[in-house]
Design brief:
Helix content: 40-55%
Bound molecules: zinc ion
Number of strands: 14
Structural class: alpha/beta
Number of helices: 25
Strand content: 5-15%
Strand order of the largest sheet: 8-9-10-11-12-13-14
Length: 587
């Protein structure tokens, strides 16, 4: 197998391999927004053609419905049930099917042929109406946003009937705002990877590239991304750009800079390599700069250059040529990233033997205990910890005292039905404002596993929060510190506390820390993993699953662990069931 073959489907541990059949599918099929935007365009062009308002609105509504349905639209197409959705009639349904399966619509093609190419963009300018567009076209020949801007600047628009200086000014502002680069945004790692997959499908499926590989911060598994860097392996760069220009989720292309802006507000950065240079290309696309610089220096020490070493098309061969083992991407850029002792025996997904931190319908989960246990079994796990919320978490329907027994009985029942997976009776107990745990001590000690987490009063000041957490972590029972700093990526900052002090308390009493794989959390933040390891605190990689699909986030948690250099023996849920139970027993 060549390096490029192996890199197809990104070689990224958090993405399932690309389905070979999916390679033939147009990108329309992987993005309902493509269909929605096309329907919206039909509506605008019908309106411009003077079609009746009823028909126009039907397409507008269709666009919104498709957006709301999201990926479910494909299931409805498959089962031929589109027209069962209120607001989707036969005609609209056939357009949706065409767009979703072929990426084309005859209605749209016909309309596009009748109107200037800039018409739709012009219609999307705030304050623009079909009436105004007609007037601008007839009097001034305006058919695009650029022409409108020019006409406004030259103050030709104000002279038209029904416009005036005020309207002209507003239109000019709207045009300029539309041209401004959107404020830089970030997306979750998971969402960036999903985008990468769509782009891969379009480029590899469309035949313009032989492979598309995730590079940059996404390959290094940083928790959020400001840009998505991809290595495109191709001999035809021009063809790739032609394809990128037609991608529905690309809003602007800056070819000279090898960048495009994605509709999600982040930049797409493309690196190119021929198949023979794919290894070097991937190394450079992955970065970060300090790591690449260290490799260059090492090459020079050996009287060579990185570029001349790249005789083989494999990234690992470059490291071999420098007398280094392969440096895992998620460790590149850390100060000792060329020291192999840092990444021997690094945790791998296949080392994990049990799912920790699972919710069920007893609190705010969507699946039953049996469904969760069967899903764990199907995914090859040996055990699962059922840890529903405690009563203080009202919003999450915490399990009241009198229902705990009921849940334990059900666990015993399900255990007989699913003997292959050991089901542990656990709780995710709230850390109350004063640092006490929810549930009386006598009950806490009877659980198989206790996760202790903060779910309220995240904004306590540093002193109060430190006192609260050191007290909770100092309690004598064995507890796992759940989603430690309580951050929600891109929306809620970590709690303010003296983290080393809390880690000291946890190390001195008995406890572990979870690495929460929820893509919105990825908490403990990786910079705190080493300080925790230095104190000898054990870890669990947990899924915090609220559904059976929620179990699939595990690889994200493992990558987070690897970023902190975590080794297999430091992670409790690599142990077999009996040993794991022994290690996490609360009493
Ligand atoms: Zn929680
Ligand atoms: Zn939870």
């Amino acid at each position: 197998m060549s390096a490029v073959d192996r890199y197809t489907a990104h070689g990224h541990p958090c993405i399932a391999p690309l389905d070979p059949h999916a390679a033939l599918v147009s990108e329309a099929q992987s993005d309902p927004r493509y269909v929605a935007r096309a329907l919206e365009e039909i509506a605008i062009l019908l309106d411009l053609s003077g079609e009746n308002a009823f028909k126009v609105r039907a397409y507008e509504r269709g666009a919104r419905l498709v957006e709301d349905l999201d990926d479910r639209v494909f299931a409805l197409i498959e089962s031929d049930e589109l027209t069962a959705v209120e607001g989707i009639g036969e005609k609209l349904a056939s357009q949706i099917v065409d767009l979703a399966t072929t990426g084309k619509s005859q209605v749209l093609d016909r309309l596009r042929a009748q109107h200037p190419p800039g018409a739709v963009e012009l219609a999307r300018i705030p304050g623009m109406t079909i009436k105004r567009m007609r007037a601008l076209h007839e009097a001034l020949g305006v058919t695009s946003v650029g022409e409108l801007r020019q006409a406004c600047v030259e103050q030709r628009v104000r002279a038209l009937k029904g416009f005036g200086p005020k309207t002209e000014e507003r239109l000019l502002k709207a045009v300029e705002r539309a041209a401004e680069p959107a404020a830089p945004q970030r997306v979750l790692l998971r969402d960036g990877l999903a985008l990468a997959r769509r782009i891969e499908t379009a480029l590899v499926g469309g035949g313009s590239a032989s492979a598309v590989v995730v590079g940059g911060a996404a390959r290094r598994c940083e928790e959020t991304l400001g840009e998505l860097e991809l290595l495109v392996v191709t001999r035809d760069v021009e063809r790739v750009w032609q394809r990128v220009l037609r991608m529905p989720w690309v809003s602007r292309v800056e070819r000279e800079a090898s960048r495009a802006r994605l509709s999600q507000g982040i930049a797409l950065v493309l690196h190119f390599a021929t198949p023979e240079q794919a290894g070097l290309g991937l190394l450079l696309a992955t970065g970060p700069q300090p790591h690449v610089e260290r490799l260059r220096a090492r090459a020079r020490e050996r009287g060579a250059e990185l570029e001349t070493l790249a005789r083989e098309n494999e990234e690992a061969a470059l490291y071999r040529a420098l007398d280094l083992p392969f440096v895992p991407p998620e460790l590149r850029g850390s100060p000792n990233d060329l020291d192999p002792s840092g990444y021997g025996d690094l945790l791998r997904v296949e080392d994990i033997r049990g799912f920790v931190h699972c919710h069920t319908v007893y609190s705010d989960g969507r699946a039953t205990i049996e469904e969760m246990a069967r899903a764990a079994e199907a995914l090859g796990m040996l055990y699962i910890t059922i840890t529903d919320h405690s009563p203080s978490a009202h919003y999450a329907r915490g399990v009241a005292l009198d229902r705990v027994k009921e849940q334990w009985d059900e666990i015993a029942r399900v255990q007989e039905l699913v003997p292959g997976v050991r089901i542990l009776r656990g709780t995710e107990s709230d850390i109350l404002a004063d640092g006490a745990l929810d549930y009386p001590d006598e009950l806490l000690e009877r659980f198989d596993v206790v996760i202790a987490s903060i779910h309220a009063r995240h904004k306590q000041d540093r002193a109060a929060m430190t006192a609260r957490l050191t007290r909770a972590m100092g309690l004598p029972i064995f507890k796992i510190w759940g989603h430690a700093l309580g951050r929600i990526l891109l929306s809620r900052d970590p709690v303010d506390c003296d983290v080393p002090a809390v880690l000291d308390a946890l190390a001195a009493s008995r406890g572990a820390i979870e690495l929460n794989a929820d893509p919105h959390r990825l908490d403990l933040p990786p910079e705190w993993i080493r300080p925790a390891r230095e104190r000898g605190i054990p870890f669990v990689v947990s899924v915090d699953a609220h559904s059976t699909e929620g179990l699939e986030v595990l690889p994200l948690g493992v990558q987070l662990a690897r970023r902190g250099g975590l080794k297999r023996h430091e992670v409790l849920n690599t142990l077999p069931a009996a040993e794991f139970m022994q290690r996490v027993r609360p009493h």
